[in-house]
């Protein structure tokens, strides 16, 4: 096999991001010594340029998917939309992080470099069309994240969180790899396109013990990345222990990558076994929704509350995927993107309320926000109502889409559980709103943020209503993206 | 004129006005700005009076494809008929009153207060004009947000408990509505449009499930016994304006939803289960009436009386099947339309009367800062004008002939008597119980000895209060003495709805003839 560099053209955005990552690392060492802002600006520039590259390529491919690098890599509409979402949301989270990093004395170029490495990993997870490539992407993401969580070396909570994350993450990777090895043993190939063809030709998959066995491991590995119950133990601890800027990043974009992994592995590669894995996903999804919402009620830490609410939201995504139809995948994709946006806004408020003296984490920091700054309180109100799924916010359409596809497949009881648990979920979001609107503020320090933070945060919140009044646009994009991919 | 999207205008003008007031902030001018938007919306809603009530068809319609993805198709489809127009006018009128009523009383975060009511007005208009069931649901749910904040921010000491209870109660009711709508959507071949859902022929088992989810969602909203317990709490804790909107507007949304959604879509189930709703309504009318009698908080008393009055609304609405069946081929349709008219008039009239009652209590509360009935006594001597209004509205609340309260109750009882004299007898008890609790309230608050030095120093109504209560008094008397324009407006539309809901031909075939 002769090695042709031009074969890498299919991955040009990823190659570009890798080059940019190295450049930023070097720049941070020499150029940006006196002016740390340069690292930040270069990172933002790199993310936007990568997004433009992805966008430019997607116009050339004209709706069809293309594979390359010996069938190990795929570029399709689904991947392009997910990559662009990841890049833009990461850019948003980096912009939020700037305030936090400066105030908490954590401003180091590594944050951005590791962040870009994580993004590169996510992009590989999206475009990987080979089990090992997917795994490499996943590990690149995970390793960067472990390091990011542990960035505050002398903070024992952060170190503990990183340790927990690392150990459990390694186990999950092991589970996934074990599943992959069995798939390889059965089919003799690692390429998803071959796996798909192999399993489609097999009869009686749902009674094939080896297949079910390997799928169980793969589903467990993916569920860990999603933080679905019962593989959720790490989520609250890591969310709470990590520096808020890292939690913000960890809680938003990687969920989109996890969704991509789920689609590529289960929906695409093992699509023939849909009747089997959908039952596993249903159990995981229902448990996540029930446990996530119930546990969130008991939290006093805002970060932990968001962590449990994440678990519940991921349950919705899993339930959207399990129906195994294009509508279901699109609905889950729409949900994931909306969720990433809500999550970014939710953690941003913690950064907003922090200052040099304090790094808030408790729910009480929201107290009296409407008195302290009505506009920020309003923005958070929109984000909370969107998380609770109350119209006319974007979160409602996300829930509606998933519930609709689930009911369309006849899972009435599942749909009932989803809506009843939404009511339970509404309670803790309402409690947060109550703190902001109905309680007296505890402190009167003015809330200061730079203009870019203010604009982005406002936009983030207003987007919930804009997407709530015109949800059709993003829903349409998700629909087209899924229909043009090779599912 | 027909091209001008008046209904969209009625939704979005107050919403945008609310946002503008919010932007203006608490500087001087928030009140004036809110009033301008409220009055503008009210004036533009008067355009709807030009509706051709003879036809009873949907008018001013507008339909734009809104969402079409993942197999979900929702249309931005609006229209009004004689049923929605009175409620829209009630809404736009009440909002003006509420803005005026909060003029001096509200000093804390005025702009947000006014904005919340304006946005609420737009959303409620959306509920009344939506012709697509999912669009209806979106407005129906969105209503919770401003109300939650109104009670929570400007409410009384226990406001947090009350507002969260209010929110979760109504939210729990309506999520089942969502499931039902999605189910109906899948059965109708992919349409949320109300007219398509009317045409559905579902098996009775499915209809039953859908019917009970509707009953839960709308029963909580209206509210019916035994899911009414959020209402007294919400009313007591809400600021005066919030109570007015709750009683005058949001309860009507429940009644309207029964009429527009529950009855026509699952008519077979409604036919089979009408005894249940009639029973619950009678229970509310009688039992809740007695509960009202023993309240020692004025707002709670009016809140319970609201539940009793809403019992009349549901009673009238669910009588139509019996009326149609009893008088098959005779004047069944006329009586059924009369029952529905009675319910509608009761809703509109209760909107004005309960608004007035809460405003009266607000007038007292602003001066004395208590709603305990015991704290009052002999107010009539110190506030003669106030006493005059209070007696008038209390009489209207008790259903005195000549006031709007009488018309609705009379029509419903008359229709009930045609269906079943026993039900009519029980429903008629309300005239006694209602009179008992309102008159006793009047006696304790207005008459007797002056109880305290605070009461002794009470000031009579100022010009603003006089104007507000005076306007309401005129409306209450006008609807009582000459209700014809109101009943006329809705007659043809109700007859059309009856034709969809309980067609004579089908009732006979289904063996419902008694």
Automatic annotation (TrEMBL), chain A:
<keyword id="KW-0472">Membrane</keyword>
<keyword id="KW-0830">Ubiquinone</keyword>
<dbReference type="Pfam" id="PF00361">
    <property type="entry name" value="Proton_antipo_M"/>
</dbReference>
<keyword id="KW-1003">Cell membrane</keyword>
<feature type="transmembrane region" description="Helical">
    <location>
        <begin position="245"/>
        <end position="267"/>
    </location>
</feature>
<dbReference type="GO" id="GO:0042773">
    <property type="term" value="P:ATP synthesis coupled electron transport"/>
</dbReference>
<keyword id="KW-1133">Transmembrane helix</keyword>
<keyword id="KW-0874">Quinone</keyword>
<feature type="transmembrane region" description="Helical">
    <location>
        <begin position="375"/>
        <end position="398"/>
    </location>
</feature>
<comment type="subunit">
    <text>NDH-1 is composed of 14 different subunits. Subunits NuoA, H, J, K, L, M, N constitute the membrane sector of the complex.</text>
</comment>
<feature type="transmembrane region" description="Helical">
    <location>
        <begin position="279"/>
        <end position="298"/>
    </location>
</feature>
<protein>
    <recommendedName>
        <fullName>NADH-quinone oxidoreductase subunit N</fullName>
        <ecNumber>7.1.1.-</ecNumber>
    </recommendedName>
</protein>
<keyword id="KW-0812">Transmembrane</keyword>
<feature type="domain" description="NADH:quinone oxidoreductase/Mrp antiporter transmembrane">
    <location>
        <begin position="129"/>
        <end position="424"/>
    </location>
</feature>
<keyword id="KW-1278">Translocase</keyword>
<feature type="transmembrane region" description="Helical">
    <location>
        <begin position="163"/>
        <end position="185"/>
    </location>
</feature>
<keyword id="KW-0520">NAD</keyword>
<feature type="transmembrane region" description="Helical">
    <location>
        <begin position="109"/>
        <end position="126"/>
    </location>
</feature>
<dbReference type="InterPro" id="IPR001750">
    <property type="entry name" value="ND/Mrp_TM"/>
</dbReference>
<feature type="transmembrane region" description="Helical">
    <location>
        <begin position="305"/>
        <end position="325"/>
    </location>
</feature>
<dbReference type="GO" id="GO:0050136">
    <property type="term" value="F:NADH dehydrogenase (quinone) (non-electrogenic) activity"/>
</dbReference>
<dbReference type="GO" id="GO:0048038">
    <property type="term" value="F:quinone binding"/>
</dbReference>
UniProtKB/TrEMBL annotation, chain B:
<dbReference type="InterPro" id="IPR003918">
    <property type="entry name" value="NADH_UbQ_OxRdtase"/>
</dbReference>
<feature type="transmembrane region" description="Helical">
    <location>
        <begin position="301"/>
        <end position="323"/>
    </location>
</feature>
<feature type="transmembrane region" description="Helical">
    <location>
        <begin position="110"/>
        <end position="128"/>
    </location>
</feature>
<feature type="transmembrane region" description="Helical">
    <location>
        <begin position="134"/>
        <end position="154"/>
    </location>
</feature>
<feature type="transmembrane region" description="Helical">
    <location>
        <begin position="275"/>
        <end position="294"/>
    </location>
</feature>
<keyword id="KW-1278">Translocase</keyword>
<keyword id="KW-1133">Transmembrane helix</keyword>
<keyword id="KW-0520">NAD</keyword>
<feature type="domain" description="NADH:quinone oxidoreductase/Mrp antiporter transmembrane">
    <location>
        <begin position="130"/>
        <end position="430"/>
    </location>
</feature>
<dbReference type="Pfam" id="PF01059">
    <property type="entry name" value="Oxidored_q5_N"/>
</dbReference>
<keyword id="KW-0830">Ubiquinone</keyword>
<keyword id="KW-0472">Membrane</keyword>
<dbReference type="GO" id="GO:0042773">
    <property type="term" value="P:ATP synthesis coupled electron transport"/>
</dbReference>
<dbReference type="GO" id="GO:0012505">
    <property type="term" value="C:endomembrane system"/>
</dbReference>
<dbReference type="GO" id="GO:0008137">
    <property type="term" value="F:NADH dehydrogenase (ubiquinone) activity"/>
</dbReference>
<feature type="domain" description="NADH:ubiquinone oxidoreductase chain 4 N-terminal">
    <location>
        <begin position="72"/>
        <end position="120"/>
    </location>
</feature>
<dbReference type="GO" id="GO:0015990">
    <property type="term" value="P:electron transport coupled proton transport"/>
</dbReference>
<feature type="transmembrane region" description="Helical">
    <location>
        <begin position="386"/>
        <end position="415"/>
    </location>
</feature>
<keyword id="KW-0812">Transmembrane</keyword>
<feature type="transmembrane region" description="Helical">
    <location>
        <begin position="6"/>
        <end position="25"/>
    </location>
</feature>
<feature type="transmembrane region" description="Helical">
    <location>
        <begin position="343"/>
        <end position="365"/>
    </location>
</feature>
<dbReference type="Pfam" id="PF00361">
    <property type="entry name" value="Proton_antipo_M"/>
</dbReference>
């Amino acid at each position: 096999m002769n090695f042709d560099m031009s074969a890498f053209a299919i991955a040009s955005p990823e190659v570009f991001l890798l080059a940019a990552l190295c450049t930023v690392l070097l720049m941070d060492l020499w150029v940006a010594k006196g002016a740390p802002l340069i690292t930040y600006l270069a990172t933002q520039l790199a993310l936007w340029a990568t997004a433009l590259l992805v966008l430019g390529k997607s116009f050339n491919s004209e709706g069809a998917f293309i594979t390359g690098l010996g069938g190990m890599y795929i570029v399709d509409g689904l991947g392009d939309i997910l990559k662009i979402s990841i890049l833009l949301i990461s850019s948003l989270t980096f912009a939020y992080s700037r305030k936090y990093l400066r105030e908490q004395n954590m401003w180091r170029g590594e944050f951005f470099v590791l962040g870009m490495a994580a993004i590169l990993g996510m992009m590989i997870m999206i475009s990987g069309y080979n089990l090992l490539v997917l795994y490499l992407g996943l590990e690149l993401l995970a390793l960067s994240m472990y390091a990011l969580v542990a960035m505050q070396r002398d903070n024992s909570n952060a170190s503990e969180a990183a340790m927990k994350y690392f150990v459990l993450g390694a186990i999950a990777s092991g589970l996934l790899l074990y599943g992959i090895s069995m798939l390889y043993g059965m089919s003799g190939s690692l390429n998803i396109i071959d796996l798909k063809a192999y399993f489609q030709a097999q009869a009686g998959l749902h009674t094939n013990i080896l297949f079910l066995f390997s799928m169980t491991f793969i589903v467990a590995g993916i569920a860990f990345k999603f933080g679905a119950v019962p593989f959720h133990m790490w989520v609250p601890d890591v969310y709470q222990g990590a520096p808020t800027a890292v939690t913000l990043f960890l809680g938003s974009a990687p969920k989109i990558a996890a969704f991509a992994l789920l689609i590529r592995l289960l929906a695409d590669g093992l699509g023939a076994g849909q009747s089997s894995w959908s039952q596993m996903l249903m159990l995981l999804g229902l448990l996540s929704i029930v446990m996530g919402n119930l546990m969130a009620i008991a939290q006093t830490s805002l970060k932990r509350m968001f962590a449990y609410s994440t678990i519940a939201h991921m349950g919705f995504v899993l339930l959207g995927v399990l129906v195994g139809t294009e509508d279901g995948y699109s609905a889950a994709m729409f949900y994931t993107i909306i969720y990433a946006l809500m999550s970014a806004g939710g953690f941003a408020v913690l950064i907003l309320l922090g200052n040099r003296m304090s790094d808030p984490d408790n729910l009480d920091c929201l107290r009296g926000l409407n008195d302290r700054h009505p506009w920020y309180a309003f923005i958070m109100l929109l984000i909370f109502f969107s998380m609770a799924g109350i119209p006319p916010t974007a979160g409602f359409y996300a829930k509606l889409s998933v519930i609709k596809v689930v009911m369309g497949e006849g899972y009435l009881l599942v749909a009932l559980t989803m809506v009843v648990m939404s009511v339970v979920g509404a309670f803790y979001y309402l409690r947060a709103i109550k703190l902001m609107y109905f309680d007296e503020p505890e402190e009167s320090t003015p809330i200061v943020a730079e203009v870019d933070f203010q604009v982005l945060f406002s936009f983030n919140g207003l987007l919930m209503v804009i997407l709530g009044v015109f949800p059709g646009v993003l829903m349409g994009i998700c629909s087209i993206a899924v229909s043009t991919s090779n599912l | 004129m027909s091209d001008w999207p008046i209904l969209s205008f009625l939704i979005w003008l107050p919403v945008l006005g609310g946002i503008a007031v919010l932007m203006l902030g608490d500087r001087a001018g928030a009140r004036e700005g809110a009033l301008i938007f409220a009055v503008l919306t009210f004036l533009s809603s008067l355009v709807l009076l030009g509706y051709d009530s003879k036809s009873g068809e949907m008018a001013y319609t507008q339909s734009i494809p809104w969402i079409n993805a993942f197999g979900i198709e929702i249309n931005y489809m609006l229209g009004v008929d004689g049923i929605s127009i009175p409620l829209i006018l009630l809404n736009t009128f009440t909002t003006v009153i509420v803005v005026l009523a909060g003029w001096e009383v509200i000093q804390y975060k005025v702009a947000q207060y006014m904005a919340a009511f304006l946005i609420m007005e737009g959303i409620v208009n959306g509920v009344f004009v939506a012709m697509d069931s999912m669009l209806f649901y979106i407005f129906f749910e969105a209503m919770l947000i401003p109300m939650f904040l109104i009670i929570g921010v400007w409410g009384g000491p226990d406001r947090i408990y009350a507002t969260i209870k209010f929110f979760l109660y109504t939210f729990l009711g309506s999520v089942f509505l969502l499931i039902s709508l999605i189910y109906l959507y899948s059965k109708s071949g992919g349409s949320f449009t109300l007219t398509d859902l009317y045409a559905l022929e579902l098996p009775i088992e499915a209809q039953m499930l859908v019917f009970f989810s509707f009953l839960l969602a709308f029963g909580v909203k209206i509210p019916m016994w035994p899911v009414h317990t959020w209402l007294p709490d919400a009313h007591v804790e809400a600021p005066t304006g919030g109570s007015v909107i709750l009683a005058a507007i949001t309860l009507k949304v429940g009644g309207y939803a029964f009429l527009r959604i529950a009855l026509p879509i699952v008519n077979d189930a409604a036919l089979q289960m009408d005894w249940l709703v009639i029973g619950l309504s009678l229970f509310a009318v009688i039992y809740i009436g007695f509960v009202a009698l023993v309240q020692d908080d004025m707002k709670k008393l009016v809140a319970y009386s609201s539940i009793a009055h809403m019992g009349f609304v549901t009673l009238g609405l669910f009588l139509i099947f019996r009326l149609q069946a009893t008088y098959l081929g005779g004047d069944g349709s006329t009586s059924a339309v009369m029952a529905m008219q009675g319910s509608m008039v009761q809703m509109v009239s209760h909107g004005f009367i309960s608004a007035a009652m809460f405003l009266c209590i607000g007038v007292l509360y602003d001066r004395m800062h208590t709603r305990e009935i015991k704290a009052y006594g002999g107010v009539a001597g110190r506030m003669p004008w106030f006493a005059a209004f209070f007696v008038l509205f209390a009489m209207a609340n008790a259903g005195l002939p000549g006031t709007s309260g009488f018309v609705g109750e009379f029509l419903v009882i008359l229709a009930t008597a045609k269906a079943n004299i026993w039900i009519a007898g029980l429903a008629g008890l309300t005239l006694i119980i209602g009179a008992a609790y309102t008159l006793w309230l009047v006696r304790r608050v207005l008459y007797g000895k002056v109880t305290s030095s605070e009461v002794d120093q009470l000031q009579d109504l100022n010009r603003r209060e006089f104007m507000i209560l005076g306007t309401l008094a005129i409306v209450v008397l006008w609807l009582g003495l000459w209700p014809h324009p109101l009943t006329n407006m809705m007659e043809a539309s109700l007859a059309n709805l009856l034709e969809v809901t309980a067609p004579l031909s089908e009732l006979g075939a289904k063996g419902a003839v008694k």
